[in-house]
Amino acid sequence: PILYSYFRSSCSWRVRIALALKGISYDLVPVNLIKDGGQQFSAEFKALNPMQQVPALKIDGIILSQSLAIINYLEETHPNPRLLPQDPKKRAQVRMIADHIVSGIQPLQNLGVLKQIGEKKMEWAQNCITSGFQALEQILQHTAGRYCVGDEVSMADLCLVPQVANAERFKVDMGPYPTITRINKALLELEAFKISHPSRQPDTPAELRA
């Protein structure tokens, strides 16, 4: 497999965690979203992913984009360890939390949107994350065990950790979100989350390396 990724991309990080958890080795091709006006806009990369976004994964003779589509494919082709619970109610909760983050929070504070916002981008990002986290904290109080849904790592957790990193980067006060903070801390102790961390990627700038 070949993963096209950017060290700081939260969508790419979700996929890196899934690959690490499932023990799938891959080659990483960095796509710098800032350099050269954004390498994702090159004709070469557009041929791989017409949406001109990371991640993209070449695997089993196909090219997949969109992090949840990739993670679902990995789940179906490499079922262990599972990232979707067998219980239909818990599975629905996992998908709900994942969608809440990948549809309701992350796109609103993504690089492309912030470029359009201009000077108030920090304030905009903080507001988007804060409103999303207020809802998420409430949801997690009903679903969480050690992790987002019960005591097994799920697709929801793969979405949570990168989003908390975004929140920290945009200087969001995490004080009002004790459940999110607790789960994030527990997940960051797991090896798959450590090795996939933005501070430990081949394309991480020297000053941001762990």
UniProtKB/TrEMBL annotation:
It catalyses: 4-maleylacetoacetate = 4-fumarylacetoacetate; RX + glutathione = an S-substituted glutathione + a halide anion + H(+). It is found in: Cytoplasm. PANTHER family: MALEYLACETOACETATE ISOMERASE (PTHR42673:SF4). The lineage of its organism: Eukaryota, Metazoa, Chordata, Craniata, Vertebrata. Keywords: Cytoplasm, Isomerase, Phenylalanine catabolism, Transferase, Tyrosine catabolism. It comes from the Eukaryota. One of its GO terms (cellular component) is mitochondrion. It comes from Anthoscopus minutus (Southern penduline-tit). Its cofactor is glutathione. One of its GO terms (molecular function) is glutathione transferase activity. PROSITE patterns: GST_CTER, GST_NTER. Its EC number is 2.5.1.18, 5.2.1.2. Belongs to the GST superfamily. Zeta family. Residues 1-82 form the GST N-terminal domain. Pathway: Amino-acid degradation; L-phenylalanine degradation; acetoacetate and fumarate from L-phenylalanine: step 5/6. The keyword rRNA-binding does not apply. This is Maleylacetoacetate isomerase. InterPro entries: Glutathione-S-Trfase_C-like (IPR010987), Glutathione-S-Trfase_C_sf (IPR036282), Glutathione_S-Trfase (IPR040079), Glutathione_S-Trfase_N (IPR004045), GST_C (IPR004046), GST_Zeta (IPR005955), GST_Zeta_C (IPR034330), GST_Zeta_N (IPR034333). Residues 87-206 form the GST C-terminal domain. The gene is Gstz1. One of its GO terms (biological process) is L-phenylalanine catabolic process. The keyword Acetylation does not apply.
